[in-house]
Amino acid sequence: MSTPLRPSGQSDGPSVRIGALVPLTRPGWIEAGQHLLAGIELAVRDINDAGGIAGRPLELLVRDTAADPQRAAAAVDELARLGVAALAGEYHSVVARAAAARADALGLPFLCSSAVLDALTDRPTPWVARLAPAQSHGWQIYADFLLGAGHRRIAVAVEPSVYWASGTRILRDHVAPYGGTVIELDARALAPTAVCDELVDHRATALLLLVGHPEPAVPIVQAVRSDQRLTGITLGAPAGQPEFAEWATLLGDDGAGIPFLRYLPERLGPLGARVETALRGQLTEAPSFVAFEGYDTVAVLAEVLRSHGADRTRTAESWAHIAIEGTRGRIRFSRTPGISVWQWAWPPVQVVDRDPAEPRRFRILHSG
Asked: Which of 46, 71, 267, 329 shows the smallest number of beta carbons within 10 Å?
């Protein structure tokens, strides 16, 4: 899918192409992909309405990754052949990792919007930068929230994945010095009712959903909420499943009061407020933090392209020199210990939930 979005009166010179990787079909998280793409497309329109890249229109080539690492790697190859100046996007960490590895091998700049896995590449690379916070940063803030709420026996319903395994390790390492334990429950082997039995047996005070959405997250929530033995337990979803409207639609009141991570400031500045209004009209619902990540990604790439041209090597050399005002704060990239890519350190991080009294409203419970 190509989106030139050339405004009237702009130069007829060749467009500057960027590729966008987004999950738009199952088993990808479609709603997250739609929000990510909405932010990307809005930024492209804004940039072209302001004159493009030195008078040349910015053209967007969109590829659906469908949460498939091999499909993402093939898309990177295709977009490189089509002459894109850089890549943007991707939501799923394992998919972004495959895309980043291929971009690194090809020497193609990739600004990752939303994936948080610390080890986005196996080796340090000049070609890849990231806007989302590393998983170790955000999930430690989430662990601090749990500890502050008095939780020491924390269960995780987990599915096999590099991402979920990394999250479990981060949580365990962070809570252990405070006398906390993390109890792993295999969400593939246990039916939702069996998960409830395990929670009772282990005397867990919190259950974190490190599983896919809507299956098996929704049935697990429903089982826990209906189990009278577990009325006092805290449900949590650090990966952000409750952020999206589908969660509230499927779960109703059961989906409220489940803390999750999102990457927004307490108050948006003028740019963020304007973008929020535009995204709300485009999506016909409140934009998630993922939509803002998409907008910021293109805003950064446009600044790079204006300042350094469309040469891929010069783009990769420019990460350290970028300093722009994004929708959620000032964006700068640096080399962060333990992170192999150029990293914005850090975007704002919040622990929020849907207010049980009004599930469409979010409450900020903790900030980091």
From this structure: 267
